[in-house]
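Practice problem: predict the structure.
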Amino acid sequence: MSQRLILATRNTHKVRELEAVLSAAGLGLTLVGADAYPEVPDVKETGLTFAENALLKARTLARATAVPAVADDSGLCVDVLGGAPGIFSARWAGRHGDDRANLDLLLAQLSDIEDPHRTAHFACAAALALPDGTERVVEGRLPGTLRREPAGAGGFGYDPVLQPEGETRTCAELSPDEKNAISHRGQAFRALAPVVRELLG
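Answer:
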């Protein structure tokens, strides 16, 4: 039976995304989402950085289940806003996960910012925690600029307004494969794969 690895999310899209990265890296692991352990409550993200939040989630699951766990935390960091929304990206407009409200508020806050100053990046921290207390964190980022109007129907969150460096399209206009190849989460998970191999063999 292969080694089990829990992904600290109930988002099946994220589980599939990580599965694709790990299988491409040839790590014969059985990946399950947090849904496989309904008795473990969701973790409150009380950290002040993406890395702290990712570690909180991975550590809690690994301790509660005695199974290695991977978690990530990500968001949009806007230079002219001093790195905000950052860790508050999912609840920037006040209610967690209201993508449209978050997007509308951000665009309103940046309405008078000239195009050359609309630089931003998506950031992702991915953490691996083992039941014995071993922990590792890696990070990925996707730099770009913010459009004035959303474009594209793919992706989620702030994807419709971030245009990656060197691209003429927003993240929401890229295909899933194109986005995974350059995304902050894809980078972080790919960086995590050799760490998983080293620690879990």
